[in-house]
Design goal:
The complex is a heterodimer of chains A (348) and B (111). Chain A is an alpha/beta fold and 348 residues long. Chain A is built from 14 helices and ten strands. An eight-stranded mixed beta sheet of chain A has the order 6-5-4-3-2-1-7-8. In chain A, a hairpin with a 5-residue loop joins strand 7 and strand 8. The longest helix of chain A has 16 residues. Chain B has 111 residues and is mainly alpha-helical. The longest helix of chain B is centred in the last third of the chain and has 20 residues. The chains are: A alpha/beta (348), B mainly alpha (111). The interface between A and B is medium-sized, with 18 and 10 residues.
Protein backbone atom coordinates (compact mmCIF):
# COMPACT_ATOMS: atom_id res chain seq x y z
CA UNK A 1 0.00 0.00 0.00
CA UNK A 2 1.39 3.37 -1.04
CA UNK A 3 1.42 5.63 1.99
CA UNK A 4 2.30 8.79 0.12
CA UNK A 5 0.82 10.54 -2.87
CA UNK A 6 2.46 10.43 -6.29
CA UNK A 7 3.21 14.13 -5.84
CA UNK A 8 5.04 13.56 -2.56
CA UNK A 9 6.99 10.66 -4.06
CA UNK A 10 7.83 12.88 -7.06
CA UNK A 11 6.54 10.08 -9.29
CA UNK A 12 6.52 11.22 -12.96
CA UNK A 13 2.80 10.33 -13.10
CA UNK A 14 2.07 13.17 -10.69
CA UNK A 15 2.46 15.38 -13.78
CA UNK A 16 -0.80 15.23 -15.76
CA UNK A 17 1.14 15.76 -19.01
CA UNK A 18 3.01 12.49 -18.41
CA UNK A 19 -0.25 10.64 -17.85
CA UNK A 20 -1.68 12.05 -21.08
CA UNK A 21 1.49 11.13 -22.96
CA UNK A 22 1.04 7.55 -21.82
CA UNK A 23 -2.71 7.37 -22.40
CA UNK A 24 -2.63 9.01 -25.82
CA UNK A 25 0.53 7.27 -27.03
CA UNK A 26 0.14 7.29 -30.82
CA UNK A 27 2.18 4.11 -31.22
CA UNK A 28 -0.27 2.22 -29.03
CA UNK A 29 -2.45 -0.39 -30.69
CA UNK A 30 -5.31 0.61 -28.41
CA UNK A 31 -8.19 2.27 -30.20
CA UNK A 32 -8.70 5.99 -29.65
CA UNK A 33 -11.85 7.19 -27.90
CA UNK A 34 -12.48 9.59 -30.74
CA UNK A 35 -12.64 6.74 -33.28
CA UNK A 36 -15.14 4.84 -31.08
CA UNK A 37 -17.32 7.94 -31.00
CA UNK A 38 -17.09 8.28 -34.76
CA UNK A 39 -18.14 4.66 -35.24
CA UNK A 40 -21.43 5.43 -33.54
CA UNK A 41 -21.95 8.58 -35.58
CA UNK A 42 -20.73 11.08 -33.01
CA UNK A 43 -17.96 13.37 -34.13
CA UNK A 44 -17.95 15.23 -30.85
CA UNK A 45 -19.61 15.09 -27.46
CA UNK A 46 -21.47 18.20 -26.38
CA UNK A 47 -22.91 19.28 -23.04
CA UNK A 48 -26.68 19.38 -22.67
CA UNK A 49 -26.75 21.95 -19.89
CA UNK A 50 -25.29 21.99 -16.40
CA UNK A 51 -27.44 20.17 -13.86
CA UNK A 52 -24.65 19.16 -11.49
CA UNK A 53 -22.09 21.65 -10.24
CA UNK A 54 -19.27 19.56 -8.83
CA UNK A 55 -16.65 21.27 -6.70
CA UNK A 56 -13.39 19.70 -5.68
CA UNK A 57 -12.64 21.65 -2.50
CA UNK A 58 -9.15 20.24 -2.11
CA UNK A 59 -6.80 17.30 -2.39
CA UNK A 60 -6.23 16.92 1.34
CA UNK A 61 -7.47 13.58 2.67
CA UNK A 62 -7.01 11.41 5.75
CA UNK A 63 -6.70 8.31 3.53
CA UNK A 64 -4.28 7.29 0.78
CA UNK A 65 -6.35 4.94 -1.35
CA UNK A 66 -4.46 2.89 -3.90
CA UNK A 67 -6.84 3.75 -6.74
CA UNK A 68 -7.33 7.48 -6.06
CA UNK A 69 -7.61 9.44 -9.31
CA UNK A 70 -7.15 12.69 -7.38
CA UNK A 71 -3.83 11.55 -5.89
CA UNK A 72 -5.22 12.83 -2.60
CA UNK A 73 -3.70 12.26 0.83
CA UNK A 74 -2.59 13.87 4.07
CA UNK A 75 0.49 15.24 2.28
CA UNK A 76 -1.58 17.23 -0.26
CA UNK A 77 -2.05 20.82 0.84
CA UNK A 78 -4.01 22.19 -2.12
CA UNK A 79 -7.38 23.35 -0.81
CA UNK A 80 -9.99 25.81 -2.03
CA UNK A 81 -9.94 29.21 -0.32
CA UNK A 82 -13.03 31.05 0.88
CA UNK A 83 -12.48 33.63 -1.90
CA UNK A 84 -12.71 30.89 -4.54
CA UNK A 85 -15.78 29.49 -2.78
CA UNK A 86 -17.36 32.96 -3.09
CA UNK A 87 -16.72 32.77 -6.84
CA UNK A 88 -18.32 29.31 -6.86
CA UNK A 89 -21.43 30.70 -5.18
CA UNK A 90 -21.76 33.40 -7.85
CA UNK A 91 -21.31 30.81 -10.60
CA UNK A 92 -23.84 28.44 -9.01
CA UNK A 93 -26.36 31.31 -9.03
CA UNK A 94 -25.67 32.00 -12.70
CA UNK A 95 -25.95 28.36 -13.70
CA UNK A 96 -29.09 26.25 -13.93
CA UNK A 97 -27.55 23.60 -11.69
CA UNK A 98 -29.93 21.92 -9.28
CA UNK A 99 -27.30 19.90 -7.43
CA UNK A 100 -23.98 20.91 -5.93
CA UNK A 101 -21.67 17.93 -5.51
CA UNK A 102 -18.81 18.45 -3.04
CA UNK A 103 -15.78 16.24 -3.38
CA UNK A 104 -12.08 16.13 -2.56
CA UNK A 105 -9.85 14.63 -0.99
CA UNK A 106 -11.97 14.58 2.09
CA UNK A 107 -14.06 17.71 1.50
CA UNK A 108 -14.80 18.02 5.21
CA UNK A 109 -11.09 18.74 5.87
CA UNK A 110 -11.35 22.11 4.17
CA UNK A 111 -11.66 24.58 7.08
CA UNK A 112 -14.38 26.50 5.18
CA UNK A 113 -16.37 23.37 4.30
CA UNK A 114 -19.23 24.03 6.75
CA UNK A 115 -19.45 27.71 5.83
CA UNK A 116 -19.58 26.75 2.15
CA UNK A 117 -22.38 24.21 2.73
CA UNK A 118 -24.44 26.80 4.62
CA UNK A 119 -24.00 29.38 1.84
CA UNK A 120 -24.95 26.87 -0.88
CA UNK A 121 -28.02 25.93 1.14
CA UNK A 122 -29.14 29.59 1.03
CA UNK A 123 -29.25 29.21 -2.77
CA UNK A 124 -31.74 26.38 -2.30
CA UNK A 125 -29.63 23.73 -4.01
CA UNK A 126 -29.52 20.02 -3.32
CA UNK A 127 -26.12 19.17 -1.85
CA UNK A 128 -24.20 15.93 -2.24
CA UNK A 129 -21.12 15.32 -0.09
CA UNK A 130 -18.70 12.57 -1.08
CA UNK A 131 -17.75 11.46 2.42
CA UNK A 132 -15.07 8.80 2.82
CA UNK A 133 -16.71 7.68 6.14
CA UNK A 134 -13.45 7.38 8.13
CA UNK A 135 -13.24 11.17 8.36
CA UNK A 136 -16.19 11.05 10.78
CA UNK A 137 -14.00 9.13 13.25
CA UNK A 138 -10.73 10.89 12.36
CA UNK A 139 -10.76 13.22 15.39
CA UNK A 140 -13.21 15.11 17.58
CA UNK A 141 -13.56 17.96 15.04
CA UNK A 142 -15.52 15.61 12.84
CA UNK A 143 -17.58 13.51 15.27
CA UNK A 144 -20.62 15.74 14.74
CA UNK A 145 -20.52 15.51 10.93
CA UNK A 146 -23.56 13.18 10.76
CA UNK A 147 -25.61 15.78 12.68
CA UNK A 148 -24.30 18.55 10.42
CA UNK A 149 -25.25 16.55 7.34
CA UNK A 150 -28.70 15.92 8.77
CA UNK A 151 -29.27 19.58 9.67
CA UNK A 152 -28.66 20.58 6.05
CA UNK A 153 -30.41 17.57 4.51
CA UNK A 154 -27.24 16.64 2.66
CA UNK A 155 -27.15 13.53 0.50
CA UNK A 156 -24.18 11.47 1.67
CA UNK A 157 -22.33 9.37 -0.91
CA UNK A 158 -19.63 7.10 0.49
CA UNK A 159 -17.19 4.60 -0.94
CA UNK A 160 -17.21 1.04 0.28
CA UNK A 161 -15.47 -1.22 -2.24
CA UNK A 162 -16.66 -4.44 -0.63
CA UNK A 163 -18.69 -5.77 2.25
CA UNK A 164 -15.70 -7.35 3.92
CA UNK A 165 -12.38 -6.06 5.19
CA UNK A 166 -10.05 -7.88 2.78
CA UNK A 167 -10.92 -6.07 -0.45
CA UNK A 168 -11.83 -2.79 1.24
CA UNK A 169 -8.56 -2.49 3.15
CA UNK A 170 -6.53 -3.65 0.14
CA UNK A 171 -7.80 -0.60 -1.74
CA UNK A 172 -8.31 2.00 0.99
CA UNK A 173 -5.80 1.13 3.72
CA UNK A 174 -5.60 -1.06 6.80
CA UNK A 175 -8.43 -0.59 9.26
CA UNK A 176 -10.58 1.43 6.85
CA UNK A 177 -13.30 -1.21 6.67
CA UNK A 178 -13.89 -1.36 10.44
CA UNK A 179 -13.99 2.44 10.72
CA UNK A 180 -16.30 2.68 7.71
CA UNK A 181 -18.71 0.22 9.34
CA UNK A 182 -18.73 2.27 12.55
CA UNK A 183 -19.35 5.48 10.60
CA UNK A 184 -22.19 3.85 8.65
CA UNK A 185 -23.76 2.71 11.92
CA UNK A 186 -23.51 6.30 13.23
CA UNK A 187 -25.21 7.60 10.08
CA UNK A 188 -27.92 4.92 10.34
CA UNK A 189 -28.31 5.86 14.00
CA UNK A 190 -29.59 9.34 13.13
CA UNK A 191 -31.73 8.11 10.26
CA UNK A 192 -29.41 8.15 7.24
CA UNK A 193 -30.20 5.35 4.82
CA UNK A 194 -33.32 4.37 6.74
CA UNK A 195 -36.45 4.11 4.63
CA UNK A 196 -38.88 6.96 5.19
CA UNK A 197 -36.35 9.24 6.93
CA UNK A 198 -35.71 11.34 3.83
CA UNK A 199 -32.00 11.21 4.68
CA UNK A 200 -30.17 9.72 1.74
CA UNK A 201 -27.11 7.54 2.19
CA UNK A 202 -25.72 6.04 -1.01
CA UNK A 203 -22.70 3.80 -1.26
CA UNK A 204 -20.15 3.69 -4.05
CA UNK A 205 -18.68 0.44 -5.31
CA UNK A 206 -15.26 0.74 -6.95
CA UNK A 207 -13.66 -2.51 -8.08
CA UNK A 208 -10.59 -3.17 -5.95
CA UNK A 209 -8.36 -4.14 -8.85
CA UNK A 210 -8.05 -4.30 -12.62
CA UNK A 211 -11.57 -5.48 -13.34
CA UNK A 212 -14.98 -4.04 -14.17
CA UNK A 213 -17.97 -3.87 -11.84
CA UNK A 214 -20.80 -6.39 -12.17
CA UNK A 215 -24.27 -5.04 -12.96
CA UNK A 216 -25.24 -2.45 -10.33
CA UNK A 217 -28.53 -4.14 -9.46
CA UNK A 218 -26.88 -7.42 -8.58
CA UNK A 219 -24.15 -5.82 -6.49
CA UNK A 220 -26.66 -3.60 -4.68
CA UNK A 221 -28.67 -6.69 -3.76
CA UNK A 222 -25.55 -8.48 -2.45
CA UNK A 223 -24.32 -5.42 -0.52
CA UNK A 224 -27.73 -4.83 1.09
CA UNK A 225 -28.01 -8.44 2.17
CA UNK A 226 -24.46 -8.74 3.52
CA UNK A 227 -24.38 -5.38 5.34
CA UNK A 228 -27.79 -5.97 6.89
CA UNK A 229 -27.00 -9.52 8.04
CA UNK A 230 -23.49 -8.88 9.32
CA UNK A 231 -23.69 -5.32 10.66
CA UNK A 232 -27.39 -4.28 10.65
CA UNK A 233 -26.50 -1.51 8.20
CA UNK A 234 -28.98 -0.02 5.74
CA UNK A 235 -28.44 2.31 2.81
CA UNK A 236 -30.42 3.64 -0.13
CA UNK A 237 -28.60 2.85 -3.38
CA UNK A 238 -25.30 1.47 -4.55
CA UNK A 239 -23.49 3.40 -7.29
CA UNK A 240 -21.06 1.48 -9.48
CA UNK A 241 -18.05 3.54 -10.48
CA UNK A 242 -15.50 2.05 -12.85
CA UNK A 243 -11.89 2.95 -12.07
CA UNK A 244 -10.43 5.23 -14.71
CA UNK A 245 -6.76 4.96 -15.68
CA UNK A 246 -5.80 8.20 -13.98
CA UNK A 247 -3.21 9.04 -11.28
CA UNK A 248 -2.74 6.31 -8.68
CA UNK A 249 -4.97 3.77 -10.44
CA UNK A 250 -2.88 4.33 -13.57
CA UNK A 251 0.24 3.79 -11.47
CA UNK A 252 -1.25 0.54 -10.12
CA UNK A 253 -2.13 -0.70 -13.62
CA UNK A 254 1.38 -0.09 -14.88
CA UNK A 255 3.12 -1.50 -11.81
CA UNK A 256 1.09 -4.71 -11.98
CA UNK A 257 1.39 -4.99 -15.79
CA UNK A 258 -2.38 -4.77 -16.10
CA UNK A 259 -2.48 -1.55 -18.12
CA UNK A 260 -2.88 -2.92 -21.67
CA UNK A 261 -5.31 -5.68 -20.65
CA UNK A 262 -7.44 -3.32 -18.57
CA UNK A 263 -7.59 -0.68 -21.32
CA UNK A 264 -8.52 -3.35 -23.86
CA UNK A 265 -11.23 -4.57 -21.51
CA UNK A 266 -12.68 -1.05 -21.30
CA UNK A 267 -12.49 -0.65 -25.09
CA UNK A 268 -14.12 -4.05 -25.75
CA UNK A 269 -16.93 -3.10 -23.37
CA UNK A 270 -17.62 0.24 -25.12
CA UNK A 271 -21.37 0.81 -24.98
CA UNK A 272 -22.84 3.42 -27.35
CA UNK A 273 -25.80 4.00 -24.99
CA UNK A 274 -23.40 4.75 -22.14
CA UNK A 275 -21.44 7.12 -24.38
CA UNK A 276 -24.56 9.17 -25.02
CA UNK A 277 -25.36 9.32 -21.29
CA UNK A 278 -21.93 10.18 -19.87
CA UNK A 279 -22.02 12.47 -16.84
CA UNK A 280 -19.82 15.21 -18.33
CA UNK A 281 -22.74 16.15 -20.56
CA UNK A 282 -24.70 17.57 -17.63
CA UNK A 283 -21.91 18.32 -15.17
CA UNK A 284 -19.29 20.96 -14.62
CA UNK A 285 -16.28 20.28 -12.43
CA UNK A 286 -14.47 23.03 -10.55
CA UNK A 287 -10.91 22.59 -9.31
CA UNK A 288 -9.63 23.76 -5.92
CA UNK A 289 -8.06 26.76 -7.65
CA UNK A 290 -11.23 27.75 -9.55
CA UNK A 291 -10.44 26.35 -13.01
CA UNK A 292 -13.26 24.59 -14.87
CA UNK A 293 -13.29 21.09 -16.31
CA UNK A 294 -15.73 18.71 -18.00
CA UNK A 295 -15.41 16.19 -15.16
CA UNK A 296 -13.29 15.31 -12.15
CA UNK A 297 -11.12 12.99 -14.28
CA UNK A 298 -10.37 15.66 -16.88
CA UNK A 299 -9.56 17.88 -13.92
CA UNK A 300 -6.87 15.48 -12.69
CA UNK A 301 -5.46 15.30 -16.23
CA UNK A 302 -5.42 19.11 -16.29
CA UNK A 303 -7.69 19.24 -19.35
CA UNK A 304 -9.13 22.69 -18.70
CA UNK A 305 -12.22 23.89 -20.55
CA UNK A 306 -11.22 26.36 -23.23
CA UNK A 307 -13.27 29.18 -24.65
CA UNK A 308 -10.59 31.05 -26.51
CA UNK A 309 -8.71 31.02 -23.24
CA UNK A 310 -8.82 28.64 -20.29
CA UNK A 311 -12.01 28.96 -18.30
CA UNK A 312 -11.93 29.93 -14.66
CA UNK A 313 -14.69 30.91 -12.24
CA UNK A 314 -13.57 34.50 -12.92
CA UNK A 315 -14.85 34.25 -16.50
CA UNK A 316 -17.74 31.84 -15.84
CA UNK A 317 -20.05 31.78 -18.84
CA UNK A 318 -23.14 29.68 -18.28
CA UNK A 319 -24.39 29.95 -21.87
CA UNK A 320 -21.11 28.65 -23.30
CA UNK A 321 -20.76 25.88 -20.71
CA UNK A 322 -24.27 24.60 -21.36
CA UNK A 323 -23.33 23.68 -24.94
CA UNK A 324 -19.58 23.29 -24.82
CA UNK A 325 -17.71 20.59 -26.67
CA UNK A 326 -16.33 18.04 -24.23
CA UNK A 327 -12.66 17.13 -24.31
CA UNK A 328 -12.12 13.40 -24.58
CA UNK A 329 -9.29 10.87 -24.43
CA UNK A 330 -8.70 7.16 -23.90
CA UNK A 331 -9.47 7.51 -20.18
CA UNK A 332 -13.10 8.20 -21.23
CA UNK A 333 -13.48 4.49 -22.06
CA UNK A 334 -13.84 4.06 -18.29
CA UNK A 335 -17.17 5.88 -18.34
CA UNK A 336 -18.53 4.12 -21.42
CA UNK A 337 -17.73 0.50 -20.53
CA UNK A 338 -20.61 -1.89 -19.94
CA UNK A 339 -23.50 -0.19 -18.20
CA UNK A 340 -21.47 3.03 -18.10
CA UNK A 341 -20.08 4.81 -15.08
CA UNK A 342 -20.65 8.18 -13.48
CA UNK A 343 -20.50 9.81 -10.05
CA UNK A 344 -24.12 8.66 -9.76
CA UNK A 345 -23.35 5.08 -10.81
CA UNK A 346 -24.35 3.26 -14.01
CA UNK A 347 -25.82 5.41 -16.76
CA UNK A 348 -27.83 2.87 -18.75
CA UNK B 1 2.20 -19.78 -35.21
CA UNK B 2 2.76 -18.75 -31.62
CA UNK B 3 5.56 -20.48 -29.76
CA UNK B 4 3.23 -21.53 -26.94
CA UNK B 5 0.01 -23.50 -27.24
CA UNK B 6 -1.86 -21.33 -24.73
CA UNK B 7 -1.67 -17.59 -25.39
CA UNK B 8 -3.73 -15.36 -23.02
CA UNK B 9 -4.45 -13.05 -25.99
CA UNK B 10 -6.37 -15.91 -27.65
CA UNK B 11 -9.17 -15.67 -25.10
CA UNK B 12 -10.40 -12.47 -26.77
CA UNK B 13 -10.52 -14.33 -30.09
CA UNK B 14 -12.95 -16.99 -28.84
CA UNK B 15 -15.89 -15.03 -30.21
CA UNK B 16 -14.38 -15.24 -33.68
CA UNK B 17 -14.49 -19.04 -34.06
CA UNK B 18 -17.39 -18.52 -36.46
CA UNK B 19 -14.86 -17.42 -39.05
CA UNK B 20 -14.41 -21.11 -40.01
CA UNK B 21 -17.96 -22.36 -39.30
CA UNK B 22 -20.49 -19.61 -38.65
CA UNK B 23 -23.72 -21.55 -38.26
CA UNK B 24 -22.54 -23.83 -35.46
CA UNK B 25 -20.65 -21.02 -33.74
CA UNK B 26 -23.75 -18.82 -33.73
CA UNK B 27 -25.83 -21.66 -32.33
CA UNK B 28 -23.23 -22.44 -29.71
CA UNK B 29 -22.94 -18.82 -28.47
CA UNK B 30 -26.70 -18.37 -28.42
CA UNK B 31 -27.01 -21.51 -26.30
CA UNK B 32 -24.05 -20.54 -24.10
CA UNK B 33 -25.36 -17.04 -23.43
CA UNK B 34 -28.84 -18.38 -22.62
CA UNK B 35 -27.46 -20.90 -20.16
CA UNK B 36 -25.60 -18.24 -18.18
CA UNK B 37 -28.60 -15.93 -17.75
CA UNK B 38 -30.38 -15.78 -14.39
CA UNK B 39 -32.76 -18.73 -14.10
CA UNK B 40 -33.60 -21.15 -11.34
CA UNK B 41 -29.93 -20.63 -10.46
CA UNK B 42 -28.49 -17.12 -10.12
CA UNK B 43 -25.84 -15.90 -12.57
CA UNK B 44 -23.45 -15.92 -9.61
CA UNK B 45 -24.14 -19.60 -8.82
CA UNK B 46 -23.74 -20.53 -12.49
CA UNK B 47 -20.38 -18.78 -12.67
CA UNK B 48 -19.18 -20.64 -9.56
CA UNK B 49 -20.16 -23.94 -11.19
CA UNK B 50 -18.33 -22.82 -14.36
CA UNK B 51 -15.22 -22.08 -12.30
CA UNK B 52 -15.33 -25.53 -10.75
CA UNK B 53 -15.78 -27.16 -14.16
CA UNK B 54 -12.93 -25.05 -15.56
CA UNK B 55 -10.60 -26.62 -13.02
CA UNK B 56 -11.77 -30.14 -13.75
CA UNK B 57 -11.35 -29.48 -17.48
CA UNK B 58 -8.02 -27.75 -16.70
CA UNK B 59 -8.88 -25.03 -19.20
CA UNK B 60 -6.63 -21.99 -18.58
CA UNK B 61 -8.86 -19.72 -20.68
CA UNK B 62 -11.92 -20.69 -18.66
CA UNK B 63 -10.11 -20.23 -15.35
CA UNK B 64 -8.97 -16.74 -16.46
CA UNK B 65 -12.45 -15.80 -17.69
CA UNK B 66 -14.47 -17.11 -14.75
CA UNK B 67 -12.11 -15.87 -12.03
CA UNK B 68 -12.42 -12.38 -13.52
CA UNK B 69 -16.16 -12.76 -13.94
CA UNK B 70 -16.61 -13.89 -10.33
CA UNK B 71 -14.46 -11.11 -8.89
CA UNK B 72 -16.51 -8.64 -10.94
CA UNK B 73 -19.65 -10.19 -9.50
CA UNK B 74 -18.35 -9.53 -5.98
CA UNK B 75 -17.66 -13.16 -5.11
CA UNK B 76 -15.02 -13.54 -2.38
CA UNK B 77 -11.73 -15.41 -2.71
CA UNK B 78 -12.95 -17.88 -0.08
CA UNK B 79 -16.09 -18.71 -2.08
CA UNK B 80 -14.04 -19.28 -5.25
CA UNK B 81 -11.58 -21.52 -3.42
CA UNK B 82 -14.43 -23.54 -1.92
CA UNK B 83 -15.84 -24.06 -5.41
CA UNK B 84 -12.43 -25.35 -6.58
CA UNK B 85 -12.30 -27.68 -3.57
CA UNK B 86 -15.71 -29.07 -4.53
CA UNK B 87 -14.29 -29.76 -7.99
CA UNK B 88 -11.17 -31.32 -6.51
CA UNK B 89 -13.10 -33.43 -4.02
CA UNK B 90 -15.36 -34.66 -6.80
CA UNK B 91 -12.36 -35.46 -8.99
CA UNK B 92 -10.73 -37.36 -6.14
CA UNK B 93 -14.03 -39.09 -5.38
CA UNK B 94 -14.47 -40.29 -8.94
CA UNK B 95 -11.08 -41.97 -8.69
CA UNK B 96 -11.53 -43.34 -5.18
CA UNK B 97 -14.96 -44.81 -5.85
CA UNK B 98 -13.38 -47.12 -8.41
CA UNK B 99 -11.18 -48.47 -5.64
CA UNK B 100 -14.21 -50.53 -4.68
CA UNK B 101 -13.65 -52.44 -7.90
CA UNK B 102 -10.03 -52.97 -6.91
CA UNK B 103 -11.12 -54.15 -3.49
CA UNK B 104 -13.71 -56.49 -4.98
CA UNK B 105 -11.15 -58.01 -7.35
CA UNK B 106 -8.55 -58.34 -4.64
CA UNK B 107 -11.03 -60.12 -2.38
CA UNK B 108 -12.23 -62.30 -5.23
CA UNK B 109 -8.83 -63.75 -5.97
CA UNK B 110 -7.45 -63.84 -2.47
CA UNK B 111 -7.78 -66.56 0.13
Amino acid sequence: MAVKSLAKRKNPLSEPSNQIKLLENKKSELKSFQSSLEEIGLKTLHAVGVEIFQVNVGKMCNQVCKHCHVDAGPDRKEIMTRDTMQLCLKAIEQSNAKTVDLTGGAPEMNPDFRWFVEEIKKLDKHIVVRCNLTIILHNRNYYDLPEFFKKHQIEVVSSLPFYDASRTDAQRGNGVFDKSIKALQMLNGIGYGIEGSGLILNLVYNPSGAFLPAPQEQLERDFKKALKEKFSIEFNSLFNITNLPVSRFLEYLIATQNYETYMQKLIDAFNPAAAVGVMCRNTISVGWDGYLYDCDFNQMLDMKIQNGKVMHLNNFNSEFLDQREIQVGRHCFGCTAGSGSSCGGSVT
Amino acid sequence: MANTYFDPADLRKFGKIGEFQKEYADKFFEYYNSVFKEGALTAREKSLIALAVSHVAQCPYCIDAYTTDLIEKGVSNEEMMEAVHVASAMSAGTKLVTSVQMMNKAKEISM
